[in-house]
Amino acid sequence: MLQSGMDGEDAMAIGTVGVVGAGQMGNGIAHVMALAGYEVLLTDSNPEALAAASGTVARNLDRQLRKGAITDEAKAQALARIRTTPTLAELGPLDMVIEAATEREAVKAAIFEALVPHLAPHTILATNTSSISITRLASRTDRPEKFLGVHFMNPVPLMQLVELIRGIATDDETFEAAHAVVERLGKTAATAQDFPAFIVNRILMPMINEAVYALFEGVGTVESIDACMRLGANHPMGPLELADFIGLDTCLAIMNVLYDGFADTKYRPCPLLAKYVEAGWLGRKTRRGFYDYRGESPVPSR
Ligand code: NAD
Fold it and tell me: Measured between alpha carbons, how far is 202 from 109 in angstroms, rounded to an integer?
């Protein structure tokens, strides 16, 4: 059983963190939290994802070790701070629970509804959603005032930003507690209001979607579109490469949230993006997306 970081004097101090979803984001969140000294309990409904999680975190910590970013001791301590469980209810007593499951509102709502009966009164709930209404997710819980969006960027260990999103009911104590966590991680928080896709994805996703339209309409090939934006706009990654990195299912889900949330056709998801998702070509995580990653080096798909 993880010890709560609560004490009488510092009621909102967070010591224990639960992470729901052990995919690329959940792994990364567990990794940075453990390195920063939090005790982490990670869960996933897919036993394979959960079984793979510790190995993924260990490999990523090794990479940081090789670069000299962390010490051997820090790596060992971080790994020792991460435990996994197949049982969501076990996260209930912790100081903060961060949901980082698949970007589908029904999935997230069901997780919060299942978690609520097991929560300690002080537990703060956070979602890593890229786009879904924080206020609406909070309304599925017993504590909208202790609920907020804590949106990490991918890859979590490398990216500096965390977007903090208040729902309509989020109280100041909760916001400050989450802000303190971001600071302890050595990251920078930016505050966004609770409108579809917040700030980063409100701006980034329509660009990626436009790149897929350019591909769909034959304006360019996968390689020429990515080269144009890398070399012409000085982006570190091309938009299609980046879409594969994020996950095409996540990109499509975010476009749908923008489209539905604003009822504006300028956010219409490109049918070609939907087609890749229908094929199960979700990008790097399935080794196939706008590029094929099954060989030695990525090969453009069209
Ligand atoms: P992913 O597909 O890599 O992982 C999602 C995980 O959630 C999977 O392991 C899946 O088994 C698990 N899951 C699904 N339903 C569950 C349930 N009911 N209970 C527990 N676990 C469940 O996706 P990801 O890229 O890690 O994205 C996770 C969240 O983070 C999404 O909300 C996404 O929008 C957000 N996000 C993603 C990125 C990115 O670049 N991929 C960046 C920031 C935020």
Answer: 22
pLDDT digits (tens, 9 = 90+) for 202-259: 999 999 999 999 999 999 999 999 999 999 999 999 999 999 999 999 999 999 999 9
- Residue 130, ligand 1, Cβ within 6 A: yes
SS3 category, 213: helix
Rounded to 10°, the helix 200-216/248-262 angle is 110
Could you give the C-alpha distances from 100 to 92, 103, 151, 178, in angstroms and in order? 16, 8, 9, 16
101 lines ligand 1 (CB under 6 A): yes
Domains of the chain (ranges; CATH) run 16-193 (3.40.50.720), 201-300 (1.10.1040.10)
Say if CB 11 and CB 124 are below 8 A apart.
no
